[in-house]
Specification:
Layout (H helix, E strand, L loop, with lengths): L2 E6 L10 H10 L2 E8 L4 H11 L5 E5 L11 H11 L8 E10 L7 H18 L3 E6 L2 H10 L6 E3 L6 H9 L3 E4 L9 H9 L5 E3 L21 H12 L3 H15 L4
Parallel strand pairs: 1-2, 2-3, 3-4, 4-5, 5-6, 6-7, 7-8
The structure holds zinc ion (2 copies).
């Protein structure tokens, strides 16, 4: 069936001891791609992600300094991040720089530091000629401003989109992609289903953001990449297209992000 989980956190403690098993189950049940997100603030995350990449040929990764920890950004964090992104052992599996951006919902770090670190991540993506995966919460306009000011010209994906339909229109107008998580299955997410309707198949991704955001009917429970099936089913239903057609489009979008294609 070619399911793609475009964004999950397999490095996290919740998956300790069961990573290989979950990954096997995914690929045995019709997955074509998995993308796990590494976090340079945690050396363990980079080490575990390196291990995860070895479990299957179709596991890819992204890495960047998350806005939540922007107050803690240091030359060492950047050095570890660059070392990971440039590692020749798995170069072809580094899909993008991400998740990077701004989170004004939690504001775990000051907006100033978040903006500064986001700009550094953009510079890294430029230098390494990689796409950018965006985390933006209640900060879509500022995120778009910074992308424009820094003249970032490689592919951009807004992951786990929860912004407004107006901002979604602007994102699409710029040719960026939008990735949709299990939030689309929640009862109260009518706004997001309306947004899904306007995203062309050529600009959409499916993700879990697991271990967070388990889709219905598992809301509140530990999420795993396997549940991207529920996300994809809901998106296909909302868009009125066969599931297979949606998955085919997501796979084609994935290939467009891969380096040198
Ligand atoms: Zn995120
Ligand atoms: Zn995430």
């Amino acid at each position: 069936m070619n399911f793609v989980d475009f964004h999950c956190h397999l490095d996290m403690e919740d998956f300790a001891g069961k990573r290989e098993e979950i990954i096997k189950e995914c690929f045995a049940s019709g997955f074509s791609k998995l993308v796990t997100v590494a976090d340079p603030y945690e050396k363990d995350s980079l080490r575990i992600t390196t291990e995860i990449l070895g479990y299957h040929k179709n596991i890819f990764c992204t890495a960047a300094a998350h806005p939540h920890n922007a107050d803690k950004y240091s030359p060492q964090v950047e050095k570890d991040l660059l070392q990971f992104l440039k590692n020749k052992d798995f170069e072809e599996k580094v899909l993008a720089v991400g998740e990077a951006g701004l989170d004004y919902h939690y504001n775990f770090s000051t907006p100033e530091n978040q903006q500064r670190v986001f700009k550094r991540q953009i510079a890294i993506a430029k230098e390494l000629r990689l796409p950018l995966i965006i985390h933006s919460r209640q900060a879509e306009k500022e995120t778009l401003n910074i992308l424009e000011k820094t003249k970032f010209s490689r592919p951009v994906v807004f992951h786990c989109y929860t912004g407004t339909i107006e901002d979604a229109r602007e994102i699409l107008k710029r040719g960026y992609y939008i990735s949709i998580s299990g939030i689309v299955t929640f009862k109260k997410s009518e706004f997001l289903r309306e947004i899904v309707e306007i995203i062309p198949l050529s600009k959409i991704f499916t993700e879990t953001d697991s271990p967070y955001l388990s889709p219905q009917p598992f809301r509140g429970r530990l999420n795993t990449p396997l549940r991207v099936k529920l996300v994809a089913e809901k998106i296909a239903e909302v868009k009125g297209v066969p599931l297979e057609k949606l998955n085919k489009a997501v796979n084609s979008n994935f290939r467009k992000l891969l380096k040198n294609t």
